[in-house]
Amino acid sequence: MPVHRYEKWWLTFGIGTLAVFLAVLGLRAFASGHTPPGSVLTVDPELIDTIAPWNAPGVYDRGDRVDVYLVGQAFSYAPNRIEVPVGKPVTFHAVTKDVVHSFTIVGTTVNMMLIPGYANEATYTFKAPGRYLVLCNEYCGVGHQFMQAEVIAQ
Ligand code: CUA
């Protein structure tokens, strides 16, 4: 049975569009070295225990600001108790050793995803002393609901 001329045109157009779409997607994804939004620093999850600064998670006072390096893994954060000063910008730098987690400080604007292979960061200045609950907002397995930490601003 012969294929109608218009149908051939449409088939050619459809397949052509698909080819262009896949070419553009492939170029963007591979040739341009795209990374997930907000993350440019890459880190091998297997090597987190051996590379600085991730091998020494903790709070580092830089004088006029504070850096906090933290590592997430199923189902905990290191450090688990984070003491930061009030009134100084605190930058949380976070990585994950295994699957996707989040680092969410309840009642603040800090809410970031920890994506395997990438370091993420968020900066926040605590205005008042207090204890802040840290939760994981990304379902990460059977212990997900137990994955928490505490930030103490003082
Ligand atoms: Cu980690 Cu949910």
Automatic annotation (TrEMBL):
Tell me the ranges covered by the Cytochrome oxidase subunit II copper A binding domain, including all copies. Answer: 63-154
Q: Where in the cell is it found?
A: Cell envelope
The regions listed as transmembrane in this protein's record are: 9-31
Question: Which reactions is this enzyme annotated as catalysing?
Answer: 4 Fe(II)-[cytochrome c] + O2 + 8 H(+)(in) = 4 Fe(III)-[cytochrome c] + 2 H2O + 4 H(+)(out)
Q: Name one GO cellular component term.
A: cell envelope
| Alphabetical list of InterPro entries matching this protein | Ba3_CcO_II_C, CcO_II-like_C, Copper_CuA, Cupredoxin, NosZ/Cyto_c_oxidase_sub2
Q: Name one GO molecular function term.
A: copper ion binding
Q: Which terms are listed as keywords in the entry?
A: Copper, Membrane, Metal-binding, Transmembrane, Transmembrane helix
Q: What does this protein do?
A: Subunits I and II form the functional core of the enzyme complex. Electrons originating in cytochrome c are transferred via heme a and Cu(A) to the binuclear center formed by heme a3 and Cu(B).
Protein name, entry field: Cytochrome aa3 subunit 2
Native source species: Hydrogenibacillus schlegelii (Bacillus schlegelii)
